[in-house]
Specification:
Blueprint: E1 3-10, E2 20-25, E3 28-31, H1 39-52, E4 60-61, E5 65-68, E6 77-81, H2 85-90, E7 102-105, E8 111-112, E9 118-120, E10 127-128, E11 131-137, H3 152-155, E12 156-163, E13 166-167, H4 168-174, H5 177-181, E14 187-188, E15 193-195, E16 208-213, E17 216-222, H6 230-238, E18 248-250, H7 264-273, H8 276-287, E19 299-305, E20 312-322
Parallel strand pairs: 6-18, 8-14, 9-20
Antiparallel strand pairs: 1-2, 1-5, 1-15, 2-3, 3-4, 6-7, 10-13, 11-12, 11-18, 12-15, 16-17, 16-19, 19-20
Keywords: Hydrolase, Metal-binding
Domain Fumarylacetoacetase-like C-terminal: 77-321
Pfam family, one: FAA_hydrolase
Length: 323
């Protein structure tokens, strides 16, 4: 049975208080003994102890703590782009032109809590959201190893919710994914790290992602719609560089983002009759009229779970505020 882990501090504690880990049972927490500074420490040294905790040991009220991101900022934050056909098409692209896995990074320093505010920088006007399934490594990848679909449990520890918040007016005109996606608070993660059993890893395709803004559904899709599956991505990453226990891989987002490609006629005009500078100026001017982009006071709610509720990653809820 999946283990629902959280990282937390007492609600009234100072921000620099030493975080603790625990297992959630209903509305209570069974605290885990010991100190695990990083996600890697917890997975290496505390995972089995967490599996031994029972509801009888759940003595701490969930409402009495502040929940922190279950992935610590020392871990790598790797992302996949255009990994759902629906998102490829809404971006004005043809999936047939993407026979490769698009991989980039976000700064780990942008990781924030599942209920913390998302801060929109003063110069950013086109703030967007992207719900994604986060994979957390259970061990270091062996350079060059090949991960097969039936061996995910040997490589991965668990899953979590990621919101790949993006400043489109930085990312797109500048062609800078890292800059446009790495501002402080642009990586809400959690609330939980769901540790899966070997047989539960075979159900990752059944996980359904839902993102709402102010109660209105914007994104909804099953994780099985990914173009490049977890075992393919892990295999490719193992061929690129070191990947270590506790590192986070965000697996891409489906359709429903605020950013949309212009129509074919507009694209033709932009391509043939405008300079690059003029093209992006026109894009930003038009996009500013799009009511789907996030504004201060907007509230995002993200959930990922199987339809039968057997695997449930909880609900992330964040509010947009001005810098």
């Amino acid at each position: 049975m999946a283990i629902t882990l959280i990282r937390f501090i007492p609600a009234n504690a100072p921000a620099d208080a030493e975080p603790k880990w625990g297992v959630v049972f209903g509305d209570k927490i069974a605290p885990l003994d010991g100190t695990y500074v990083t996600t890697a420490d917890l997975i290496r040294d505390g995972r089995e102890a967490a599996r031994q905790l029972t509801p009888v040991q759940a003595t701490l009220e969930l409402g009495s703590v502040r929940i922190l991101p279950p992935v610590t900022s020392n871990q790598q934050f790797i992302c996949q782009g255009v990994n759902y056909e629906s998102h490829v098409r809404e971006s004005g692209l043809d999936p047939r032109n993407f026979p490769f896995n698009t991989i980039f990074t976000k700064a780990p320093s942008c990781i924030s809590g599942p209920y913390d505010d998302v801060v929109r920088p003063a110069h950013v006007k086109l703030l967007d959201y992207e719900i994604e399934l986060g994979l957390v490594l259970g061990r270091d990848l062996v350079p060059g190893e090949v991960v097969t679909p039936d061996k995910l449990h040997e490589v991965l520890a668990g899953v979590t919710i990621v919101n790949d918040v993006s400043a489109r007016d930085v990312q797109l005109p500048q062609g800078q994914f890292y800059k446009g996606k790495s501002y402080q608070t642009f990586g809400p993660v959690g609330p939980v790290l769901l540790l899966l059993e070997p047989e539960e890893w075979q159900r990752w395709r059944e996980l359904k992602m839902t993102l709402t803004v102010n109660g209105v559904a914007r994104q909804q899709a099953y994780c099985g719609e990914m173009l490049f599956k977890p075992h393919q991505t892990l295999t490719e990453l193992a061929s690129l560089h070191g990947m270590h226990v506790g590192d986070l891989v965000a697996t891409g987002t489906p359709a429903g983002c605020a950013a949309k490609a212009p129509g074919k006629l507009v694209m033709f005009i932009l391509k043939h009759f405008m300079s690059d500078a003029g093209k992006w100026k026109a894009f930003i001017a038009k996009a500013k009229k799009n009511p789907l982009y996030l504004k201060p006071s907007d509230v995002m709610a993200l959930s990922i779970r199987t339809d039968d509720g057997a695997l449930d990653l909880g609900q992330q809820r964040t509010r947009v505020v001005s810098a």
